[in-house]
Every structure is written in structure tokens, then in C-alpha cells.
Amino acid sequence: xxxxxxxxxxxxxxxxxxxxxxxxxxxxxxxxxxxxxxxxxxxxxxxxxxxxxxxxxxxxxxxxxxxxxxxxxxxxxxxxxxxxxxxxxxxxxxxxxxxxxxxxxxxxxxxxxxxxxxxxxxxxxxxxxxxxxxxxxxxxxxxxxxxxxxxxxxxxxxxxxxxxxxxxxxxxxxxxxxxxxxxxxxxxxxxxxxxxxxxxxxxxxxxxxxxxxxxxxxxxxxxxxxxxxxxxxxxxxxxxxxxxxxxxxxxxxxxxxxxxxxxxxxxxxxxxxxxxxxxxxxxxxxxxxxxxxxxxxxxxxxxxxxxxxxxxxxxxxxxxxxxxxxxxxxxxxxxxxx
Length: 338
Hints:
alpha/beta, Rossmann fold, Luciferase, domain 3, GMP Synthetase, Chain A, domain 3, four-stranded antiparallel sheet, 13 strands, 23% helix
């Protein structure tokens, strides 16, 4: 498996836990299949993805009304930032008294820099706490530690137990150091664009290398996704920055519900939602529809690959994509040549 979740699950056996694994589409034969599984097996911890929770909400699934989930204590969400509205959905439609833990880390560390804390309150749209043994700090581009509410890079300033010490086929260590330590010498820089909260938790706004920069203003991609994907007609979206005339214009691609056309009225609706809840800088200059969005084999959308396509650059590591053919939907779009 190319994702750390497999390795992570195996460690659960050391606690004498029973692992419950589901192989198949989470929406076949219908959207309740995972909740059927949870009820039948009397599941106590349900691990899933932020995308599944969002999709279940849009499908109107309400297991709280149809399933006995009395044994369920915790829901873990990962893969991408969990939107504030998804927190609302979990407590309204799944179960009111679960501990909802959005978690974030990486396959490279087989761990979490930030995650859940069963002894602390759950705050809407936030990851509760820094991981044990993780000296997590948010820094600006000059390496200064930032305070609550200020967006910057997620760094770790102390070594930690699951920290990799080398890469295969990297005898000099150059690739390893370039991956984590080039930006801030001596500090692990994980590549997430985040902000600490007043509660000691974190909000993740997207990958640092995918951050948009229109007019010199840094915008995390998740800030746009959380608004665009609240529009009923939009199933999912992908946003990138396209270099044009010395600046960056924001281009939003949307995958729409079956039978829905991307009209000017729908574009206006999407822009209005984004503008109302963010800033004018967040509003996409161009909105286009696509039938599919490229993603990794672990289900994460790949903004950088699409950005490279838009700029006519070669795509690295196509083998990591589950659906590389989806990149063709982004090539040679006449709307992006002017």
C-alpha cells in the first residue's frame, strides 16, 4: 500500500483491537454501506476521509435516524482538511456524542503532527491538538514563530520518534534534506499551510506548494474548496493559480452533479458564495467544469499536476495517480489561453 494508513492500522493490533476493513466503493450498493458495516460490527472507532463525510452530507444520508450506532465513540477523518460544515453534519446526522477528530500528518512519518484529543472539546473546523512528542510551530517565510490566527508553514523544531533519517538511493542525503530542511535549516518543514488557533489546535488551509498568490496575497486552496463545495450543484472542485502577465489568476475547476450544466448563473452563484465568506481575492477569475479530477491512489487531489498541465510543464510521477487520464480534461482549454 502506498499510504501510511495500512501501516498505522496494523499497529492497532498491538492494543488487542479488532481491525474492521471494508474493500469496495463506500457508495455501493448505496451510501449507507459503511454505516451498515459499523452497526453490524458494533464499531467503536470509524476512520474515514473528509471527502466521504462531505459526499455523505451532500447525498442526504442520515445514519443517526436509521442505524444503531450506540457503540460508536470516535470518528477519525483524514486525507484532506475537514470543512466546518462537515463537523455540523457529523453531529447532526451521524451521532451527537462522538469525538470527531480530524487528523493530519504524513506517510513519510507514519504519524500525525496534529490530531484528536479525547479530553478536550471539539471546535468546529479545527484539529484539536498537536501530537505527542511533536514540537509543532507555525512560522512565516523568514522562520519567525507566528501567533494564533496567523497563517504560515507547519514546522517541527525537535526530532520525533517516527522521523525518517534517510531516503533509499540517496547516499549523500541531499534529497532527504531538500525535502524537509531546505526552507528552514535545522527545522522540519512539512509543506502544510496552517494557522494555530486560540484553543491550541490547528486549521489546515492546504499544501504550501499549492498556495495561491494573486496580487501577492497567499490563499490556501482549502479556503476556496470549503465554499465552492457548499454549492449544491458542485460535487468536488480543484483550484490552481495560473501565471498570467506578471500575476496569478485563480482558476477553479468543478465537477458537477449529473445533468447539471455550468451556466453563467451557476458561475455567479459559486463566486457569490466564495466572495461572501472570504475576500474578493479568493474569487476565481475563471470557473470551468470537468468530468473528473485527478487524484493519488490514496484519494488526494493533485493541484500541482494540474498546475503543471496549465503551464505546459512535464508531469512528475504519473504512476502515483489513480486516474492519470483525468489530466487530459485540463489540457488545451481555450478559456485559459487568453
